[in-house]
Design goal:
By secondary structure, the protein is of the alpha/beta class. About 45% of the residues lie in helices and about 20% in strands. It has one domain: Rossmann fold (3-Layer(aba) Sandwich), CATH 3.40.50.150.
């Protein structure tokens, strides 16, 4: 009787150890997968931060007299890099910025270094205070006379029923937009996620046949929806998403790809 009981206990122990061993193996596998995932995430973040530093260092070659700041509410270094490359690859005749800031100075300085003449650079903002700060940054860097600053308060645009900048087309002086940067109005508050939608709908008749549109903060759900609506309304455009940093969506009739 004792022998049978011993055998029974031994079988139970072997089974229990087998189950425990299986559980440990599975747990070890899960830990290994999790560690691998964390390593990949860390390397991705490290790669992006390294690229951001490289971009920022490269931008110092513009020789600005006074620093401009990237990130937070301003454009990030990935947007700045693409913007500078675009200005060099296809120097525009008419530039319109929806939302003034660091990009205003970077554009003006890049165009200055290219000795560009007879072009129009308009930078608008709905907040006169922020517009004045942008003007002072441009002045500190000696490029204020290269920019036309315009205060355009937000008004309701019909038939969209949305608020957008007032009297923008009148500022163009009959010229067609080659480069449109959409970094406003603010679209981070609840209910305002699609605040930038009117840009292309209002300005479409004022775009040059060959033009580029750069939408900032394009990784956010609101801007993703806006860029899709634009493409549906105007399918002749080609949409490219650059997801690094805050992301930009580039709509153009002739896309130019740059290396990351």
């Amino acid at each position: 009787m004792l022998s049978i009981l011993s055998i029974f206990v031994a079988v139970l122990l072997v089974g229990a150890f087998g189950i425990i061993g299986l559980m440990i193996w599975r747990l070890s596998n899960q830990i290994s997968h999790l560690t691998s995932h964390i390593d990949r995430q860390f390397l991705t973040v490290l790669d992006e931060k390294t690229a951001e530093i490289e971009n920022t260092v490269a931008i110092t070659a513009l020789g600005l007299r006074f620093p401009v700041f990237l990130g937070d509410v301003s454009i990030d270094s990935f947007h700045a890099k693409y913007l500078i490359q675009q200005l060099i690859a296809e120097p525009p005749r008419t530039i319109l910025e929806l939302g003034s800031g660091s990009s205003t100075v970077l554009i003006a300085r890049t165009m200055e270094l290219q000795k560009a003449k007879d072009y129009l650079h308009i930078s608008i903002d709905h907040e006169s205070h922020f517009l004045e700060i942008s003007r002072r940054y441009a002045q500190a860097n000696g490029v204020e006379d290269r920019v036309k600053f315009a205060h355009c308060p937000l008004v309701k645009i019909e038939p969209l029923g949305m608020e957008w900048y007032a009297d923008v087309p009148q500022l163009l002086e009959g010229k067609k937009i080659d480069l449109l940067i959409v970094d406003g109005p603010p679209a981070y508050q609840d209910g305002q996620e699609r605040a930038r939608l009117p840009a292309l709908l209002v300005l479409y008749p004022h775009l040059a046949e060959k033009c580029t549109i750069i939408l900032d903060d394009a990784n956010r759900p609101g801007e993703i929806a806006v860029s899709k609506e634009w493409l549906q309304a105007y399918p002749e455009f080609h949409l490219t998403r650059l997801k690094r940093g805050k992301g930009i969506a580039v709509l153009t009739r002739q896309i130019i790809s740059y290396p990351d």
